[in-house]
Design a protein that fits this description.
Layout (H helix, E strand, L loop, with lengths): L4 H27 L4 H21 L1 H9 L1 H29 L16 H8 L5 E6 L5 H13 L6 E6 L5 H6 L13 E6 L2 E6 L4 E4 L2 E4 L2 H12 L6 E5 L12 H9 L3 E5 L11 E7 L7 H12 L3 E5 L6 H8 L3 E3 L3 E3 L4 E2 L2 E8 L9 E3 L6 E3 L4 E6 L5 E6 L6 E7 L5 E3 L16 E2 L3 E8 L11 E6 L15 H13 L21 H30 L1
Length: 543
């Protein structure tokens, strides 16, 4: 019987359309589950087209299968099918049993270790209601990020709520009482210790005329701590006198404090004439302008009543700061520290403090344009025996009520340059400049009187430089570690924290459910399916 080339071409076209329909149906079913029935229809159409092509060209297909080439092709197909089946089986197992690795230098695509620790320690359930309009990018980002939280605890439950379709629920949780411009998306956290509402301005910002997520992890983790009854330490930065701004030159320091689960706020004593009771530590970062007498009295009273403060000063600070520190046993001399034996090249006025001259044990910290902290003459240095057998020099007041521990100091070849000129090479002037070693930092401690239960002593850290913690130098050497350990040491006694990584905002990878579904299914079957289709097309053309 003569062959019919037109019939072969027609059946081949139908088979090709059938394969395309099968591929489209599978892709639609995996990526668009909302139109699953349509996908099934396309799949059925593809099967019918393939069956039609087989019936039209039955004799040619049967001859190809029965012949020697056909038997070889069948065996090859069986082996390929077994191989593909094994790959699908292994990939299916890997979906539920996997471990993710973040190999970036600063682990920027994962939650911070502190957040993971909080989630791992959750013992009570937390319900999260996300009120947002479907399709809203910031709301979807928040839900996706919170979904990442669920990978580290089974105590979180998340529910997405469309306030337009569920107005009663929105009213029940108080979202309708918020100003319209701040209303949605709103994330509500509810736990055993209460309810916390996080508005979208708390985890987003307007950058280049676009609202983008920022610091969402800080806000969400803080809310979880709050509704589960965990108290966060709050650090206040004094403002109103030209201090370093925590939103500009000190923004890295602020971000790292947030990443270490501190709350950070500013405090203007001219507006709020008292230091809040929840202040765990007060940071005074290089004021440039004079403080009023009432402000000095407030700070002094706070310290005398068991307060904790970190004061960073630059050369020639305001007179009020000098007077405040003088009452705590230290004097601020005019001048800039020069240390030709240990400095950051090429600037001799940037002393480098290595491990053996650093109380915290950091390998390399440096202080651009620092001044010296000098104990008052009435304070007597004594050698204090520590628990580990080492000795520590301590300056003690005549009454024995104030103790000063040196934190940072320079080499013996250093001096305090009284008339520093950056255009000239610094030289030591006998009788004018103050000879080293010099102290760049002190910890001043007043033990509790013991008259009241739960009373704690006052702790004051003074460092003769503020630039080391600025954005320009924060991540250089151990400068950032020094700042964070200083704050932590004030708020939790002698316990020190370790900084495992630096968080980079705006670059965290949070995958949406649709993208997750595509990645899962495509990793299991998409590539093997494409190989199978291509192989089928090649076989059909070469049969």
């Amino acid at each position: 019987m003569p062959t019919n080339p037109r019939g072969y071409r027609f059946s081949g076209l139908i088979a090709g359309l059938g394969l395309v329909a099968l591929l489209i149906g599978l892709v639609v079913m995996l990526l668009l589950p909302g139109i699953r029935y349509t996908a099934w229809g396309v799949l059925v159409l593809g099967i019918l087209l393939l069956a039609t092509a087989f019936i039209i060209d039955f004799r040619q297909v049967s001859r190809a299968l029965i012949g020697r080439r056909g038997r070889f092709g069948v065996s090859t197909t069986v082996m390929a099918s077994i191989f593909i089946g094994i790959i699908l089986f292994v990939n299916a197992i890997s979906i539920g049993n996997y471990h993710r690795f973040d190999v970036t230098g600063v682990a920027q695509f994962t939650l911070t270790s502190q957040t993971k620790e909080v989630l791992g320690g959750l013992e009570t359930p937390v319900q999260i209601m996300a009120f947002y309009i479907p399709g809203e990018p910031i709301g979807e980002y928040a839900v996706n990020l919170l979904g990442e939280y669920q990978n580290y605890t089974d105590q979180l439950s998340i529910e997405s709520i469309d306030p337009a379709e569920n107005p009663d629920v929105a009213r029940e949780y108080g979202t309708t009482l918020i100003l319209a411009e701040y209303r949605y998306p709103t994330i509500v956290f509810e736990g055993d210790s209460g309810k916390r509402m996080v508005l979208f301005p708390e985890y987003s910002a307007l950058i280049e005329e676009q609202i983008v997520p920022v610091e969402a992890e800080h806000a969400f983790t803080s809310a979880i701590l709050e509704v589960t009854g965990t108290v966060q330490r709050k650090v206040y930065f004094l403002t109103g006198h030209g201090e370093s701004d925590i939103y500009s030159e000190y923004s890295y320091a602020r971000e790292e404090l947030l990443d270490n689960l501190f709350k950070v706020e500013t405090l203007n004593l001219q507006i709020t004439p008292s230091i809040p009771e929840d202040c765990a530590a007060l940071v005074i970062a290089a004021p440039q302008q004079s403080l009023t007498s009432s402000e000095v009295d407030i700070i002094q009273s706070y310290l005398e009543s068991g307060g904790q403060a970190l004061i960073l000063i630059n050369p020639n600070p305001p007179q009020e700061i000098e007077q405040l520190l003088s009452s705590w046993g230290v004097k601020i001399e005019d001048g800039i520290v020069i240390d030709p034996s240990s400095y950051v090249s090429p600037n001799q006025n940037t002393p480098l403090v290595t491990r053996e001259r650093n109380y915290f044990g950091f390998a390399r910290t440096y202080f651009p344009g620092a001044t010296a902290i000098i104990p008052q003459p009435e304070y007597t240095p004594q050698l204090l025996q520590m628990e580990d057998g080492s000795g520590q020099v301590v300056w003690i007041s005549e009454e024995g009520q104030v103790q000063m521990f040196m934190l940072l100091w320079t080499t013996e070849n250093s001096w305090l340059e009284k008339d520093f000129d950056p255009l000239k090479e610094a030289e030591f002037d006998e009788g004018i400049d103050l000879e080293g070693p010099l102290f760049l930092g002190f910890l001043i401690y007043t033990p509790p009187t013991g008259e009241a239960d739960g009373e704690q002593g006052s702790t004051l850290m003074v460092i003769g430089d503020s630039d080391f913690a600025s954005n320009e130098h924060f991540y250089s050497g151990n400068n950032g570690d020094l700042f964070l350990n200083a704050v932590s040491g004030l708020t939790v006694g002698t316990e020190l924290i370790s900084i495992e990584r630096k968080v980079m905002p705006f670059r965290r990878l949070v995958v949406s459910p649709e993208a997750t579904r595509f990645i899962n299914y495509s990793s299991i079957g998409l590539l093997p399916l494409l190989v199978l289709v291509i192989g089928g097309v090649i076989w059909w053309r070469r049969r």
